């Protein structure tokens, strides 16, 4: 469709292009100084918590579960209102995923539902900052730690946000990020894992680099030669190259401006849709400073698909985020059934993501609002 207004897109400047070009003209395309610089730049936005850069948000989740030691016989309590990767990567580690229902206000996992889902086998509680609104990270950490589990914050939507005065990335035992083009900053493809615990961080760093052990103190055959390296546990190549890390550092320099602009656009939608019967605008809970990745409008009265098709026909690229994870056939084939989390299923039935990215013009927002108002006349 010509002139489709997408629901999200990257924001690239000449400074971004110059940063990438500088690396291409240098000596290191990967495993070089731009990687360390990007990881340090990211830590400046997560309260100083160190990070390991990886090839995608999905890779970040896989690395985080590996660092946590998730495996056969373990359970991971997870929200169903997320992209499938949050749960799939736990399942790939051999864990049983236990889904906990979500809040009708934010789409984030409900603390009481998490508490009810925990068993002695729970290894990790995985919360998602849906749409960029942080989950109840303080309460979730308490619930997880009381059970002897770790809290994993899937912050794919929320880099640059904060909860109760502390930045996203500083609350959970492990925090994962995604830098896909539609996210709050981009490295084209890419992600990261942040964790304050040095042992977890070392495990994450090792797993993302094939599991290679170069520390002679830990090697079983340290006198083999200067070239020697060993693999003690299987890992994968999830290294993010210097070229993409350079783009990430350039983008991070504008992250505060991105967050502000997204908030402005979000507020403009709120104002334009506040009096429209048949929709509910997103809420912001006390203590949250979201970094809005999505504008998740809720369409009431069973008209979500009708409004979706109406807007698409008019060149407005709305989207739905997300199908409850356990609805996917791969989970259905494992025995999960619809009806498991009624709150999440109701939220899904109503959710419609409106276009939102920093380069979106006020006039574009007004156009979307006008079309929605026309639909309800």
From TrEMBL:
The keyword Lipid metabolism does not apply. InterPro entries: DegT/StrS_aminotransferase (IPR000653), PyrdxlP-dep_Trfase (IPR015424), PyrdxlP-dep_Trfase_major (IPR015421), PyrdxlP-dep_Trfase_small (IPR015422). CDD domains: AHBA_syn (cd00616). It comes from the Bacteria. One of its GO terms (molecular function) is transaminase activity. SUPFAM superfamilies: PLP-dependent transferases (SSF53383). PANTHER family: DTDP-4-AMINO-4,6-DIDEOXYGALACTOSE TRANSAMINASE, TRANSAMINASE. This is Aminotransferase class V-fold PLP-dependent enzyme.
């Amino acid at each position: 469709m010509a002139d489709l207004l997408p629901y999200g897109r990257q924001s690239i400047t000449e400074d971004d292009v110059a940063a990438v070009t500088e690396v291409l003209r240098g000596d290191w395309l990967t495993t070089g100084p731009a990687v360390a610089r990007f990881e340090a730049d990211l830590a400046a936005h997560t309260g100083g918590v160190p990070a390991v850069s990886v090839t995608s948000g999905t890779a970040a989740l896989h690395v985080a579960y590996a660092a946590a030691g998730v495996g056969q016989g373990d359970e991971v309590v997870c929200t169903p209102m997320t992209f499938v990767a949050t749960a799939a990567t736990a399942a790939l580690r051999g864990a049983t995923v236990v889904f906990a229902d979500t809040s009708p206000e934010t789409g984030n996992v409900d603390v009481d539902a998490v508490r009810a889902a925990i068993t002695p086998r729970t290894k990790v509680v995985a919360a998602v900052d849906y749409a960029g609104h942080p989950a109840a990270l303080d309460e979730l950490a308490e619930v997880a730690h009381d059970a002897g589990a770790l809290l994993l914050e899937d912050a794919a939507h929320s880099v640059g946000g904060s909860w109760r005065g502390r930045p996203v990335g500083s609350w959970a035992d492990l925090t994962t990020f995604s830098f896909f083009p539609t996210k709050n900053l981009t490295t084209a493809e890419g992600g990261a894992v942040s964790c304050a615990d040095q042992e977890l961080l070392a495990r994450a760093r090792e797993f993302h680099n094939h599991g290679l052990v170069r520390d002679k103190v830990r090697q079983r055959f340290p006198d083999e030669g200067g070239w020697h390296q060993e693999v003690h546990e299987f890992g994968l190549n999830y290294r993010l190259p210097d070229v993409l890390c350079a783009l990430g550092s350039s983008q991070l320099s504008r992250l505060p401006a991105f967050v502000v602009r997204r908030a402005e656009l979000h507020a403009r939608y709120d104002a334009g849709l506040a009096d429209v019967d048949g929709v509910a605008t997103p809420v912001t809970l006390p203590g949250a400073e979201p970094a809005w990745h999505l504008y998740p409008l809720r369409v009431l009265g069973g008209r979500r698909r009708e409004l979706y098709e109406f807007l698409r026909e008019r060149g407005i690229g709305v989207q739905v985020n997300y199908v409850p994870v356990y609805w996917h056939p791969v989970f259905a084939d494992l025995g999960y059934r619809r009806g498991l989390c009624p709150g999440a299923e109701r939220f899904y039935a109503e959710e419609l993501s409106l276009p939102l990215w920093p380069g979106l013009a006020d006039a574009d927002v007004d156009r979307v609002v006008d079309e929605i108002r026309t639909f309800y006349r």
